[in-house]
Structures are given as C-alpha cells and as structure tokens.
Amino acid sequence: MTLILNILWFIFGGFLAGLAWLFAGLLLAITIVGLPWAGAAWRIAAFSFAPFGKTVVDRPWVTGHEDLGTGPMGFLLNVIWFVLAGWYLALGHLVIAVAQFVSIIGIPFALQHVKLAVIALAPVGKAVVPN
User: pLDDT tens across 42-71, in order?
Assistant: First the structure.
C-alpha cells in the first residue's frame, strides 16, 4: 500500500515538490550563507519525493548522540529558518492539507502535508527514517 501511495503522491505533485526543494537547497548552497540549511532542504526534498512509510524524528534519536545541528547552534539555525522561511512554507503545506482533507481520498495525502509542514518549520537537526 505504501508503494502505491508513494507512486500516486509522486505523480500528483511529489515530483515537483521534491524538485523545488532540491533547487532551493542548491540555491542555499550557492549563496554560502545558506549552506547550513542546504542539507536540511535536501533532506526535505528526499522526503517530498516519497513521504509514505517515513517519519521525521530528531537526529539524536537516530545517531544516539548530539552534534552541531542538534545543540544550541541547531536551535539558532532553526529560529533563523523559522523567521525567514519556515512559517510560510509550513502554512502552505497546512493550507494544502486542509483542502485535501475535504475528500476521503485526499486524507492520506493531507496527512503527509502535515508531516511536511512539521519538518518545514524547523528542519535542522531532524532525520527522516522508515516507519
């Protein structure tokens, strides 16, 4: 079922969303100033291509230890991200989710947009893992 949902997601917008996040990560990397957020954008891109069967968790939960992106520096990077980009990216995903919740067929896709909204709020120090 996960494979079918990921294929439908990919066809009906996931491909474009993933490409947009890849392009955003490239632009962030090129500017040098945005380099700390480029990895997070690429992580979201991979998640955007096929979100079914995956969950977003804090990176220390996966690695077992804290690193530069999960401590105070990660918090600061997430605050800057939230102010400059995160809140309106998350809002966009939530608006799409509300629109998709209207139909029964759209509910699984709406739930994925909610997961994308969560990671779009503060992506630094997060990891995407299989369920």
Answer: 999 999 999 999 998 988 888 887 877 888
Question: Model confidence over 120-131: pLDDT tens digits?
Answer: 899 998 888 998
Segments making up each domain of the chain, as ranges = 2-130
Give residue for tokens 């090129």: 30
User: Distances in Å between the alpha carbon of 66 and those of 38, 59, 74, 84?
Assistant: 20, 8, 10, 25
Q: How far apart are CA 31 and CA 126, in angstroms?
A: 22
pTM, two decimals, is: 0.82
The tokens of 56 are what? 């977003």
61 Cβ neighbours under 8 A, 6+ residues apart: 127
CA gap 57, 54 in Å, rounded: 10
CB 81 within 8 A of CB 93: no
